[in-house]
Amino acid sequence: MKKKKNMDKKKAVVLFSGGKDSALALYKSVKSKKYKIIALATILPKKEDSLLFHKPDKKLLKKQAKELGLKLITQRSSVKNKGQELLDLKKLLDKIKKYDKNIEVVIIGGIKSSFQGKRFSRVAEMKGFKIHAPLWNYTSTQLWKELLQNKFKIIITKISSEGLSKDFLGKIIDKENFEELKKLSDKFKFHLDFEGGEAETAVLYMPLFKKRINIKHKIKSDGEYRHFVKGLKIL
Q1: Which H or E element spans position 45?
Q2: Which of 18, 148, 161, 205 could pair with 153 as two cysteines, CB 3.0-4.6 Å apart?
């Protein structure tokens, strides 16, 4: 009976940046027992600012994949424009098909960005995949509630918004820090889920990890409101 249930699961790959949204999408998809996760797939933009993709730290990304026990499939992107980024996404999907032609589903961590979601869906369908977005239409409160309840350890790795201090960089977002973020969001009107590009995150622990990741880092600033975690080292 167990074998039959496993055979009924759809083979899937997670479009994984190492941030909170894609990590929670992965976790929820595993918990649903509807998908067999075959691999993680990641676009690696050359520049900090991408229209469609989060820029992960490659060393941390490899460590996350190791802790999850999953194959990591990557594709570099020049980030010249959104057209080029979509071509790079097509290349990534081709690599996924080459890795396992029986993968049917691409899981994404999108919440409400129709700009991103429509483009991902169109490209995936062209390549014969279905899109699964388990966080679609989540509120910011709902998103953070699930992350904190499930003991995700999340740090902010990039800030691009008025009202967000660089002091948040590299700190684990716990319930206390979240309440502070919530107050700042109300005051400065940035999206608490960061879907407007106000910040980027990285997950140092989630329930599917073998063990927590520990890091050391430096901070680089580029103007008054732009700050980044740089020189990241895995301990």
Answers
A1: strand 35-45
A2: 205
CB atoms within 10 A of CB 3: 7
Given a cut of 90, whether residue 14 has pLDDT beyond it is: yes
Which pLDDT value is given to residue 1? Answer: 41
Whole-number Å distance between alpha carbons of 187 and 149: 25
* Structure tokens given for 182: 């919530």
First-to-last CA distance in the chain? Answer: 43
Total count of domains within the chain: 1
Cα gap 207→150, rounded to integer Å: 7
- Domain CATH code at residue 111: 3.40.50.620
Query: In 3D, which of 185, 202, 198 has the Cα closest to residue 225?
Result: 198
Task: Give me the domain span that covers residue 180.
Answer: 2-234
Which tens digits make up the pLDDT trace of 129-147?
999 999 999 999 999 999 9
Sign of the four-CA dihedral 210, 215, 221, 222: negative
Report how far Cα 193 is from the mean position of its chain's Cα atoms. 12
Per DSSP, the three-state class of 111 is coil
- pLDDT value of position 86: 87
d(CA 190, CA 193): 9
Q: Which residue has the higher pLDDT, 52 or 160?
A: 160
